[in-house]
Amino acid sequence: MLSQRPHLLLLSAAVLSACTVGPDYRQPSAVLSQSYMTRPAEATATGGTPVNLSAWWEEFNDPLLTHYVSLALAQNLDLAQAAARIDQARARIGTADAALLPSATVSGSAARAYQSVDTPVGQLLNAQPGLKRWGSDYEVNLQAGWEIDLFGGLRRQREAAIADYSATQAAAVATRLAVAAQTADIFVTIRGLQTRLDIANGQVKTQKQLLADVTLLYSKGAAADYQVQQAQGSLDQVQATVPVLNAGLDAALNSLDVMLGSPPGTHRAELIDAGSIPSAPSISDMGTPADLLQRRPDLIAAERHLAASNARIGAAVSEYYPTVSLNAFLGSATAAGTGTLFSGGASQMAGLVGLRWRLFDFARINADVNEAKGADAEALAAYRQAALRATEDVENSLSSLVNREAQAANLSHAEASLSKARDSSMTAYRGGAASFIDVLHADETLLQASDSRAQAQTESARAAIATFKALGGGWNPETLRTQQPSTPFSGGQIAAARAP
User: Fold this and answer.
1) Do 277 and 393 lie in a common domain?
2) Mean pLDDT, the chain, as a whole number?
3) Using CA atoms, how far apart are residues 231 and 211, in angstroms rounded to an integer?
4) Predicted confidence (pLDDT) at residue 359 exceeds the cutoff of 70
């Protein structure tokens, strides 16, 4: 019977340690619509090739855009900070793991003391023959302790740490999405401003030629002075738009360098030659709003924060119950001249079973539990609100994309028509069938249409980028789902996550 008691004690401890108080987590539902209200024409077409959301920037078929996005994902300093936060969260899992295991410390000391004759002890030693007022002491000890997690408080804390780690991973992915989208957005803005500058500079040349023609006619008495002044005024107005566009272009170029983790001006030479505005790819597969819960990393992060807050309720509830700890002490101590340090006579040991129970502190525990429940309710509301905001984000970006594309198409037609009208007005003016005012009006109208068309194309591409970001594009969800909490990967890996 006595030989069975150790086994019974171990079995009892195992049964008790399996008790985990507090609510078990269940992922909540989010009220979302079945489909999006706005769908691009390409999304309803059949036979289209789905866009690769994991690397959507490649779908723009602009090698320089792809290059800069890849460079930003490798060098951006916001991503470096996100990677560091992942490492911190992973370290907190290690702390929570260590709390579940026994701990041990080894200590040792060696001391040599000399007693003053002015003290009572020194006088006593000095008065006794054979006793010395100096001596040496040596001590080596091993101390071990283990808090038995009977009611699962420590396990709940570890559960919360793992959920926080997953949330940090997802937040890093969200940062990655933001960096990719912002880099692409800045690049498209640069191309748009360069296109508008080309239009303005081309109009400046046209207006200068028109002014030269009118001035020549005026010198021959075939044109009035007011026509010269009107031509000069129109030229000045067009020239006034160039500095504004140049200032915007400089700011965009500087912003791109900072996104790439470089000082302003680093990549300016690569972009000095104007390029066309990237055309937005067709979106043929958007999924449903429910897919956002698995696709958008900010929603994954919100859900993991909710799981962590749920686990902290259990950690708070565990304080209602007693805590049992086991402690042991084993060491050896001796003084010089009295024996060997590790001899049998120098050994010392102790064992202790500790019990801590906040029996008269339930008011504080109640407050802690209520605070944890309040934090959990807040996290639940935040998760559901984030889901609604994500759906709103997609709806707004889709609406912007559809309407900007329609605007760009209409303005392209308008620009072509007004270009013909301008040529016709100039021909009619030179033939005496139209006034100079007609020519200036045609030039001004064409300039406005061309500039508006360039802006609409820019905004259409930017709306496509915003749509990809809103849909959660820019990473492979399986990369995060397949990671096990017990074997987390580093922040550098998640910052550089790529589609397989």
Assistant:
1) yes
2) 83
3) 5
4) yes
